[in-house]
């Protein structure tokens, strides 16, 4: 008998039919004798609907109140799943973040979990109940409602699994595992049966959406075995762990789309201060004494405009493409040459231990990922001799 | 400088435009120097939307989980109003029931408020903030989410006003006061400038929807001055208090529609036990050793069917019409005669100190209310001599 945490995302609970299917799957696990804690996101579309209401009132809504608003979404899905399980004769109970006591810092919209009280969770599990926890939400030390940022339900699941010392944290999603790259962009992308925590963390940091960065970091730190599975079909999914049998030069390619490359006439230090205040992630690609060029998500432009509107110029649509693997730097030059041969311009590149990131025009993203995936991920056998690739 | 509690119902916050209008009105009050606590319902339609989702899963959803589900509605409206006020340069903060600490008993779906902690409310008010409290919701002693039943936001408002010893509790709604009867059914119904707590309580108990019974009882017990106002137009509304200058024989007529008169082959005592267990309100009109005839809301039929399905017979659509006034029993016979002359059958009647209730066919409700209102409320001068009315 194991203790499992099962997390279902928005698409998995996107309709009453889907919720009923999740109920069936959770009951299956329970019937095998396991203890089950379920962590849910809001029904798909709900978070965007609520955000849309807020933006009708204020383009940049009060961060505290935005969290009050958005957490209503998970409260709906946990109640509905509990009803569906109870209707089937099993005993389920929903719990919001404050009922579990999921304590976070006070960084509204992007909070970090500080602690999770397991007393009430454990007492419900001892009573044989299936416990359904609202993902994405927490409470700060003043009992204000906080959220963990988009995708934060993964973090909740991993943190709950860590606190309960669960045997596995299973992330059910609309894809059946972690892929070499986004299969919606590159249909030939392949599912990885396993991936090392190092690489998963870098992929997530560079925009792979299958798992949220904070959740991977948390799982790694607390050594929580993590598995990505499909909500819709049976399968083994992808196991994220500390030992992998096979580590190719390029494990996968992560893509961050809908970004803006901006030139701002403000010294980088001053800019960085403001960016930290907003809690934004930026890539500072160049800087001089008086100005800097940075890459930010389009969604974050409105905030920067609040402060720097008349100092921003040359805004262009870009994507960041990040290749991950222990020795991926050895093929960086070959990749740039390959793209150049395909008439794709690389504006900037950044090399880290196990990752090379390239800044390209948004319009080029599909071709670029396809070409690199074909040449450097699928043709892994070529990678023994990178020099061959430069001329291919 | 007064301390005011202002409650706005679902229609008043039914759209972004309405929420902006409420923001303006609350700010007006604040600008007059008053301290303001706002209590909100869910946006109109939201509670029914959520209930609809639940009923797709289970016709009789788990009561505990239904409360988790429904309270998401107020969480949305309080956050949006706080944003709208903040956007206008005033300082607002939203609070859920658990943040205020509104303690109730554990009667899910129909809980009673036990206590309200005023510490956090008062500290926010001291800081000059407009505090926006989620109506309708509470927490039991195990921190489970509870709701106060339909219209429960009124109760929250009155209870908060009582706990804070507010100068007035203002209930903003889609009508501009308490009327002699429902003006949507009888257009000539008149607004009462004031009404005695006794009569208001009886009107509410008998189905007048303008104020919820529990809230009137609570306001009366805690001597909270209560005022019903329109959200949409200026005006004095109706003041509910302990002294009224004028008390006609028939103050008003309350109507309960969509009810069922059922014959159940179960002794009344046994039936009553089950009804109490479900927390239903019924009118037991007849009973023998082996059976009883009761009136229940159509909405409650499903629950009774769970237990008594094969013992229920003769279900008919009825309405209850209740006339309120200190001496209204003196005209009871005249009313029945008048209805009889209009070919409206009164199945049963019940006389209490300040109220006479009549059971009529659902199809007759409009004519019956119109006739009685015209003869006994509008023509108050005739009431000095009730015998005149019997032959009119």
How far is the N terminus from the C terminus of chain A? 54 Å
Shape of chain A: globular
Helix percent band of chain A: 25-40%
What is the mean predicted local confidence, pLDDT of chain A? 92
The CATH topology of the largest domain in chain A, please? Answer: Carbamate kinase
Count of discrete domains of chain A: 2
Q: Could you name the ranges of chain A where pLDDT drops below 50 across 5 or more consecutive residues? A: 381-392
What's the multimeric state?
A: homodimer
The tally of helices of chain A reads 14
Largest sheet, strands/sense/barrel of chain A: 8 strands, mixed
Main-sheet strand order of chain A equals 3-6-2-1-9-13-14-12
CATH A-level architecture of the largest domain in chain A: 3-Layer(aba) Sandwich
- Name the biggest interface: A-B, 37 and 37 residues
Tell me the total number of β-strands of chain A.
20
Per DSSP, what share of the residues of chain A sits in E-state strands of 2 or more residues? 25-35%
State Rg of chain A.
22 Å
Catalytic activity (chains A, B): L-aspartate + ATP = 4-phospho-L-aspartate + ADP
Family (chains A, B): Belongs to the aspartokinase family.
Domain Aspartate/glutamate/uridylate kinase (chains A, B): 3-230
Keywords (chains A, B): Amino-acid biosynthesis, ATP-binding, Kinase, Lysine biosynthesis, Nucleotide-binding, Transferase
